[in-house]
User: Which sequence fits this backbone?
């Protein structure tokens, strides 16, 4: 039973705004070449976004997304220049990449996992006392080697669990779904985002933002929820250092959620 309500309005709004603009433009112009040129411009933005995002996250599935939209763009170019043979070739490649993306999407390869992480942690919390507190909570201490924590943070970035922030004395993982500012290099307002921090000395601090806490259907005990997030990540880091990272991904995949969160358009 889901304890948290996720929101994809950010991605849905962008996706439908772009498609709505293109649909209106197509209906109001008689020049198909202009329409295709405008479409090609937007596709180029999506391709560049996915390429940069694939490099930033080290997630190869974004590169597949870029290849998918590149095939569409090349097909449009060949249509504009009336190169029918080349157009058919890239339409075949488009079908191949499209099927690959559908499979990747169903396996949640292009999905940021913040809500699954919070949902999974909430499953171990049953009490509903003491609501939200706007402060980071020190949740304990770990003897895990700092290099194992850094290795897991890289794994977390690659599998879209969050955005790592590495400092000389600590390592943080920011749980977010709004990744476009990060991609563009715009500083995120981290005080409004949930995160977990582990210092070199092993102190673990968890911050759950008010926005994320408000998405829970039940007002779960705040301290217990933060402790559950802490224990969950400590167990994951241990499993990862022992080569059992597949177990963690399986746990997240068992949480019922929409397979895509903007991955197909790169946001």
Assistant:
């Amino acid at each position: 039973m889901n304890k948290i309500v996720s929101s994809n309005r950010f991605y849905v709004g962008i996706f439908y705004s772009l498609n709505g603009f293109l649909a209106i433009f197509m209906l109001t112009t008689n020049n198909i070449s202009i329409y295709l040129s405008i479409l090609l411009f937007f596709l180029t933005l999506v391709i560049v976004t996915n390429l940069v995002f694939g490099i930033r996250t080290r997630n190869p599935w974004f590169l597949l997304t870029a290849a998918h939209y590149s095939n569409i763009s090349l097909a449009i170019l060949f249509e504009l220049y009336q190169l029918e043979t080349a157009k058919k070739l890239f339409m075949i490649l488009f079908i191949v990449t499209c099927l690959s993306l559908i499979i990747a999407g169903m396996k949640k390869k292009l999905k940021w996992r913040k809500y699954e992480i919070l949902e999974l942690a909430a499953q171990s919390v049953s009490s509903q006392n003491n609501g939200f507190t706007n402060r980071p909570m020190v949740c304990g201490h770990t003897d895990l080697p700092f290099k194992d924590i850094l290795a897991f943070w890289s794994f977390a970035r690659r599998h879209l669990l969050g955005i790592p922030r590495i400092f000389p004395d600590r390592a943080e993982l920011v749980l977010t779904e709004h990744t476009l500012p990060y991609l563009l290099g715009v500083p995120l307002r981290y005080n409004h985002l949930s995160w977990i921090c582990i210092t070199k000395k092993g102190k673990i601090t968890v911050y759950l933002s008010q926005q994320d806490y408000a998405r829970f259907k039940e007002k779960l005990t705040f301290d217990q929820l933060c402790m559950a997030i802490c224990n969950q990540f400590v167990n994951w880091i241990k499993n990862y250092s022992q080569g059992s990272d597949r177990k963690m991904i399986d746990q997240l995949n068992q949480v019922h959620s929409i397979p895509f969160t903007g991955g197909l358009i790169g946001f």
In short: DSSP finds ten helices and five strands in the chain. Confidence is low (pLDDT under 50) at residues 262-267. The CA atoms of residues 7 and 57 lie 22 Å apart.
